[in-house]
Design brief:
Pseudouridine synthase, 4-stranded antiparallel sheet, 9-stranded mixed sheet, 341 residues, 7 helices, Structural Genomics Hypothetical 15.5 Kd Protein In mrcA-pckA Intergenic Region, Chain A
């Protein structure tokens, strides 16, 4: 089963045109609507208003007059359609909703959008049902309204657009890194410094295609920056806050493992083994009990701040840690209070 990618904002180039030498002056939205089948002029205008249509590498308005040899690129916040989306009546934990967007608190274990091996039961399948009367969710796109995503086993806050314009404007904010995102993670080990920054290009692992890795050479992978701050020292594990400058696949999990602090119970990156502590059998049993209580890795998308795509108002949402993650932290809190490392 293919795992959902990490919180990652991208704009995908769907179309690229070079105007003919004999091209007469013509509005950009008209030029594109003449060339793009099954793409409405309204969709083109919304993409342009959000800055996602480039003429000669510069954002252009719908009213821009196309000239001979102009290079025009259309960027959209989702890849090309891959297969049919099936709406499903699945409960969704909604934190906020208005005419432009919806903010949800995703449970650990739920895949965000359909992909190979996960065609049903995803958050997007659920939203396609919940928002089935909206034009954006009637087109069969695989990622309708989706501007970012988090791993299957990561819980927490996600924002989804309900209109084309909101989709494009929110995608632009993620692309330009103006969105404020924080995560809480329980990781192995104690930190020498209370806060720090992890940098290192992240790309697909050479040895295991299901994993990502940090590359030391500047030519491999994509740049990634994670800022962390220790919230609580719990002896053999630590509760940390992570803030993202970038949003690469599995970024927090990969960066924490890279500095020898894997996320607790993260099977893919080695956090599901006892990495710190004693050799006592009682301790091993304690850790195994923690693993059993929290069958997914201990990572939660705690908060999300952005500018409302219609009103421009600053929006901020946070969510409590899942109950079992809180229980694990409390268990470690009690254990560390009894044991001197």
């Amino acid at each position: 089963m293919q795992e959902e990618t990490n919180d990652q904002a991208e704009l995908y180039e769907h179309y690229n045109f070079i105007a003919d030498k004999g091209q007469g002056l013509l509005r950009l939205d008209k030029f594109l609507s003449n060339r793009l089948e099954h793409v409405s002029r309204n969709k083109i205008q919304n993409a342009a208003k959000a800055g996602n249509i480039l003429v000669n590498n510069h954002a252009a308005k719908p009213s821009y007059k196309v000239k001979p040899l102009d290079e025009i690129a259309v960027l959209l916040p989702y890849p090309h359609r891959e297969f049919e989306l099936i709406p499903e009546n699945i409960p969704v934990n909604i934190l906020y909703e208005d005419d432009s967007l919806i903010v949800v608190n995703k449970d650990a274990g739920m895949v965000v959008h359909p992909g190979h091996g996960n065609y049903t039961g995803t958050l997007v399948n659920a939203l396609a049902w919940h928002l089935k009367d909206l034009p954006l969710f009637q087109k069969g796109e695989i990622r309708p309204g989706l501007v970012h995503r988090i791993d299957k086993d990561t819980s927490g806050v996600l924002v989804i657009a309900k209109t084309e314009l909101a989709l494009n404007k929110l995608a632009r904010q993620f692309y330009e890194k103006t969105v404020d995102r924080s995560y809480h993670a329980l990781v192995w080990g104690r930190f020498r410094q209370a806060e720090g920054t992890v940098t290192g290009n992240i790309g697909r692992s050479i040895r295991d295609r299901l994993k990502m890795q940090v590359f030391t050479d500047a030519e491999s992978g994509k740049p990634a920056v994670t800022h962390y701050k220790v919230i609580e020292d719990l002896g053999y594990v630590s509760l940390v806050e992570c803030r993202l400058e970038t949003g690469r696949t599995h970024q927090i999990r990969v960066h924490m493992a890279h500095i020898n602090h894997p996320v607790f119970n993260d099977e893919r990156y080695g956090g599901n083994k006892i990495l710190r502590g004693t050799t006592f059998s009682k301790y091993k049993q304690f850790v195994d009990d923690c693993f059993a209580l929290l069958p997914t890795h201990a990572l939660h998308a705690r908060s999300l701040g952005f500018q409302h795509p219609e009103t421009g108002q600053d929006m901020f949402f946070d969510s409590e840690l899942p109950g079992n993650m809180q229980q694990i932290i409390e268990k470690w809190r009690n254990y560390s209070g009894k044991v001197i490392d």
